[in-house]
Amino acid sequence: MHWLDTFQDYLNRPLRERLTYYQKDGRISDIMVSQQFSLDFLQTIFDLTDQVREIEKTQKGAKFLTTLLHPKRGMLYFTQPSTRTFLSFTNAMQMVGLMVSEVRDPSLSSEIKGETIEDGLRVIGKYSDVIVMRTPQPGLSEYIAYLMKQWGEDILIINGGSGQDQHPTQALLDAYTIHQFFKERGGISGKKYGFVGDLWRGRAARSLVYLLSQFDNIEMFMVAPEKFQIGVDLQEHLEKFKIPVQTTTSLKEVLPVIDCLYMTRVQDEYDQLSESKQFDDSEFHLTPERVALMKQESMIMHPLPRRQEIDTAIDFDPRAKYWQQVSNGMYVRAALLLYLFQQEKELQAFSQ
Length: 352
Ligand code: NCD
What we know:
By secondary structure, this protein is of the alpha/beta class. It contains 14 helices and 11 strands.
């Protein structure tokens, strides 16, 4: 029997039903996709993140944080390149007292001797309480989370980016950054969001679109060349949530209208023939002249890494929030880990 056969039956169930699998006592226990996050959950993570940032400022506080999850073990299974997600998870884990190990190159592990990925991850699970997985295969972290439950292994799985599919913790840190910016400006609801670049294959944009679609009165503008426009999955979702969406190839028309601009790069690592490497996407780049078209009270985001999508001169513009996203990532992930291990009361008690 191959594990994939039973998983296939499970995959045929509706998403809502599948997601109950990743809950324990009414709380999220594994992080798979951004559709898992309710508005209440988001608010909880925003509040926890604020608390962690505050507590970490003092030596006493930072020391206290390291007692919270000690001596649990965290594993980073990253078989696809990563700088920010890897480092922010490593530092977040250390911040809350997890002991951290990593697997980054499966060619150095027993997979090379013919061990299956299922057995390999079951082994890794024996040394972990939580595994963060970044892989080129869409759905692999969900498959492994499913198997851990079948095997009776008490391990949490976090999707740290699954191919072209989803990047739910990036969506959380993006939402936190947007929340920070709009907190005194009426909140995330009621705003106009522009997504630019490779919206077909970009998992960061996809996860954020799913997340934002829960907020009231928002509008979305999808700016991309035809072949990189959002796929049917997002189209159907946005239709279901009755979100007004405009798809366009004109960045210049959208810039004066939007409150939040989310730039992305062309995801050409997924190309078979490197066709998009030759693709001139300069029409979709943000230049100082184009930024001048944007509202004064707006924000510019990018999950990074960037290439030429955003001119570096724009880094000095107060609307640029992508470096803020990077630093928020560590705190949001620390807050998420504390939530998953149910440490809210301890955190609250320290803050009082
Ligand atoms: C993104 C990713 O890996 O999906 N980066 C990140 O995690 N911050 C975006 C990208 O690679 O373009």
